[in-house]
């Protein structure tokens, strides 16, 4: 486990660069001195050991922490991209499902419309056929009735014509000779 930069800074707050009280210039080779009010010499050794443990491969702890942060950023980016892809996939899947349902609905409506058209044409044809059959039957019944009526009228006219001939013959005085 690595000690984070914030923890390291908190530990090093009690340290200061050694400088002489007489105003000697800063010397980079000087070791860190622990303020007597905050840390002892033993604590200073422990701090130095802890700082060395933070970067065992010779890199500075800032580079190690930066590498950890970059790895964490890559993991976050990977997870965000995966989430975006899943969301996009779900959206495409839902859209595909809706398109499929719409296509099926349109096909079903088209089939139902065709069925209704066929049924209407069939009903129309059956009604027309029934109407024509009834009309033909009515025509045949009417023709038969007219024939009967005409024959009766003809028979009556014939009877009346014969009766009128008989009346006319009797009226003209023609008598039929008797054979006596």
UniProtKB/TrEMBL annotation:
<dbReference type="GO" id="GO:0000278">
    <property type="term" value="P:mitotic cell cycle"/>
</dbReference>
<dbReference type="InterPro" id="IPR051185">
    <property type="entry name" value="ASPM"/>
</dbReference>
<dbReference type="GO" id="GO:0051295">
    <property type="term" value="P:establishment of meiotic spindle localization"/>
</dbReference>
<protein>
    <recommendedName>
        <fullName>Myosin motor domain-containing protein</fullName>
    </recommendedName>
</protein>
<dbReference type="GO" id="GO:0007051">
    <property type="term" value="P:spindle organization"/>
</dbReference>
<keyword id="KW-0677">Repeat</keyword>
<dbReference type="Pfam" id="PF00612">
    <property type="entry name" value="IQ"/>
</dbReference>
<dbReference type="GO" id="GO:0005516">
    <property type="term" value="F:calmodulin binding"/>
</dbReference>
<keyword id="KW-0112">Calmodulin-binding</keyword>
<dbReference type="InterPro" id="IPR000048">
    <property type="entry name" value="IQ_motif_EF-hand-BS"/>
</dbReference>
<dbReference type="GO" id="GO:0000922">
    <property type="term" value="C:spindle pole"/>
</dbReference>
<keyword id="KW-0963">Cytoplasm</keyword>
<dbReference type="GO" id="GO:0005737">
    <property type="term" value="C:cytoplasm"/>
</dbReference>
<dbReference type="InterPro" id="IPR027417">
    <property type="entry name" value="P-loop_NTPase"/>
</dbReference>
């Amino acid at each position: 486990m690595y000690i984070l930069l914030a923890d390291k800074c908190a530990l090093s707050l009690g340290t200061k660069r050694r400088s002489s009280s007489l105003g000697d210039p800063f010397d980079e080779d000087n070791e860190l001195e622990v303020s007597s009010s905050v840390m002892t010499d033993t604590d200073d050794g422990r701090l130095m050991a802890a700082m060395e443990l933070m970067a065992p491969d010779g890199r500075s702890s800032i580079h190690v922490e930066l590498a950890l942060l970059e790895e964490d950023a890559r993991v976050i980016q990977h997870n965000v991209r995966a989430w975006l892809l899943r969301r996009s996939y779900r959206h495409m899947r839902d859209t595909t499902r809706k398109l499929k349902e719409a296509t099926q609905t349109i096909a079903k409506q088209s089939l139902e419309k065709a069925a209704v058209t066929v049924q209407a044409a069939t009903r129309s044809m059956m009604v027309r056929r029934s109407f024509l059959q009834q009309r033909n039957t009515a025509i045949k019944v009417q023709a038969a009735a007219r024939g009967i009526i005409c024959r009766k009228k003809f028979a009556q006219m014939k009877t009346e014509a014969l009766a009128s001939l008989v009346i006319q013959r009797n009226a003209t005085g023609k008598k039929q000779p008797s054979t006596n």
